[in-house]
Amino acid sequence: MSRATLKDVAEKAGVSTATVSYVLNGTKKTISEETKHKVMEAVRKLDYVTDMNAKSLVVKDSKLIGVVIPQTEGKTHRLFSNNFYSEILSAIEYEARESGYQIIISGMDTDENFVRIAHQRNLDGVIAIGVCSDELLSQFEKIDIPVVLVDSYCKSAKFVNIRIDDALGSYMATKYMIQHGHKDIAFMCGTLKDNGVMQKRLQGYRNALKESAIPFKKAYLCEGKVDFQSGMELAQDIVKNNMPVTAIVTTADILAIGAIKGIKSEGRTVPEDYSIIGFDDISICDYVSPGLTTVKQQISEKGIGAMHMLSNVMKGVKDQDDLVLPVHIVERDSVRSI
Amino acid sequence: MSRATLKDVAEKAGVSTATVSYVLNGTKKTISEETKHKVMEAVRKLDYVTDMNAKSLVVKDSKLIGVVIPQTEGKTHRLFSNNFYSEILSAIEYEARESGYQIIISGMDTDENFVRIAHQRNLDGVIAIGVCSDELLSQFEKIDIPVVLVDSYCKSAKFVNIRIDDALGSYMATKYMIQHGHKDIAFMCGTLKDNGVMQKRLQGYRNALKESAIPFKKAYLCEGKVDFQSGMELAQDIVKNNMPVTAIVTTADILAIGAIKGIKSEGRTVPEDYSIIGFDDISICDYVSPGLTTVKQQISEKGIGAMHMLSNVMKGVKDQDDLVLPVHIVERDSVRSI
After folding, report:
1. Is the entire prediction scored with pTM above 0.90?
2. Burial class (CB in 10 A: 0-12, 13-18, 19+), B284
3. Of the ranges A42-56, A231-245, B56-70, which one carries the lowest mean pLDDT score?
4. Residue A143 DSSP symbol
5. Which residues have a Cβ under 8 Å from the Cβ of B116 and sit 6 or more positions away?
6. Do A64-163+299-324 and A166-298 share a fold?
7. pLDDT tens digit string along B66-106?
8. What is the spatial distance between Cα A184 and Cα B278, in angstroms, rounded to a whole number?
9. Which CATH number does A166-298 carry?
């Protein structure tokens, strides 16, 4: 289909292209109602569509949101090897669509220059999910567009944060195990980074142990990547090394689901031999056997909230408070009393 | 960071903005080497980044690929309620990134106007995944940009297709059940549409039955949506209605995984009471118990292939053959011999 241009509209309306532009962008108040009417008639007849790329040059409004998912584990095909990301992205995409925005996905490699991408695309705003490197945060500081950070403990006044209380979540999970009679509780997590989500969750685990006067044992700290494979291998090690634990607190459902598989592959069972608790409450928790008891965070609400907060920043709302969403335990069948 | 403009570069280089533009776009051959050098020096010093939105107006190259996932089941938050979509999208995103493209996601509602979106964004190309409505296909025909259809049986010369042989896949699944002694085999699928993937798979099921002289029974056809909930409910109905089947052939792993849950919730077991086979081989097949025997399609290869084919069309390669990827059975523990 040959596409109508601004010039076509101008010709059909019998006015200059500048006049069409004034009418469409509302940038001049002295256009007569009759002229406006003629222009809009021509727009309708020609099915004229504003080129957003051109429009964005004038009105600084691309209606495009960048969603950044830092590939902290290195280059990989699998943007969504943890279902948490696909679930939150679903919610952001839906919410953006409802508000007239589209999303562009950047599975940022650690060495990429985001300033370049943001400027090239003239993004209206950015939502960054997960742990951002200091380098990426400093790039965000350089660009003067609204940024919402999801699951970050960054304290810069430049950014708005939406997250949960990660320490509280793991505290609750560990406490839950203790209440079920467990004392030898392993902690299975992704790469620990200063001020990152994993570090906060480790703190929650340690707080719960301390409260019950259970000494923290470094040997019970199982650090890997946040994916199924890693959970499986870490759990196999626990069994093979005869680590005397009866319970495993994990920092992600996908780790816990891998751990269940790893334990089964070593001829042991959940929850008979090991009690396991997840974190997130992704849909798969319900699919597996035994159903995974977990710390539920409201993943969709987090995505929707991030988009709402970004909308507010884009509208010029200042001083939004960080949003901390609640967590709670969802009981299924992967934890037993001893 | 205040961003350098074309004007800044021109001032720094001591030339006109038109000259800077000529140099950057290579649109005029009569610029002296000295001037070129001065301009490029200024570009480097100012860290000038071309605005892709502006550039796309001139060179018709936005480096932006639209990925369309028609929301055939109606408006929903859950773009990825079937993990097949997140897995193929991961592959497309990675492949696009490697080729210097970014992807923009459109979870198209049935009533949306894609012509408008494609023009607004000046997309370089489109990958559409899953069954497209005739309306959407006719919109694709109207836009003069490259389109690759994934999992479509559309015969228009305008589009390139990448898919599997869906009838063959379900034929193999059904044959596999028959070889394991099953004769009363239910078929569980999503909404059947003329010339759609579900219809083709039904045909494969019927072909396998016919070959073994097993009559097709309409009562064994369980039609729902392609999601976990629907699989669970359809399986619960099979148990509750005492449908005398011993095996269930499904058209999606997510349906099969829901079916396993539904059967368990009715106090029956897989594969003892019912043998089940999936379709796709999404990662979750490995997570559930019993592990799901399934018809594997190479989901990542499909995504990568779609992006490769799109690159070819964008480069002007004509008459690409449709690509039909192979399928095979992956044996796990959800089917038993009777």
Report:
1. no
2. buried
3. A42-56
4. S
5. A49
6. yes
7. 998 876 555 554 567 778 888 898 899 888 988 888 899 87
8. 39
9. 3.40.50.2300
3-state secondary structure B152-184: CCCCCCCCEEEEECHHHHHHHHHHHHHHCCCCC
Q: Which of B119, B144, B261 to mutate to test the interface with A (most CBs of A within 10 A)?
A: B119
For residue A300, the chain B residues in CB contact (below 8 A) are 77
Determine the Cα–Cα distance for residues A31 and A44; give it in Å rounded to an integer.
Answer: 19
Interface A:B, Cβ pairs < 8 A: 153
B228, containing H or E segment:
helix B228-240
Rounded CA separation B105/A95 (Å): 13
Cis peptide leading into residue B271 (ω within 30°): yes
So what's the ipTM on this one? 0.76
**Looking at the domain A64-163+299-324, which fold is it?**
Rossmann fold (3.40.50)
Best-predicted range by mean pLDDT among A44-48, B59-63, B73-77, B213-217? B213-217
Chain A residues with CB inside 8 Å of B121's CB?
52-53, 64, 102
Nearest CA in chain A to B286: A261
Q: Tokens for A186, please give them.
A: 């392993």
Sole residue written with tokens 């480097």: B44
Extents of the domains making up chain A: 6-50, 64-163+299-324, 166-298
Residue matched to tokens 């009759």: A34
C-alpha Rg value of chain B to the nearest Å: 26
Alpha carbon distance A203, A191 (integer Å): 14
Cβ neighbours for B11, distance < 8 A, ≥ 6 positions apart: none
Q: Report pLDDT digits (tens) over B172-222.
A: 999 999 999 999 999 999 999 888 899 999 999 999 999 999 999 999 999
Instruction: Tell which B residues from 31 to 70 touch A, by Cβ distance under 8 Å.
Output: 49-54, 56-57, 62, 64
CA of residue A209 relative to chain centroid, distance: 29
β-pair type (B185-189, B247-250): parallel
Nearest by CB to B97, which of A78, A107, A121? A107
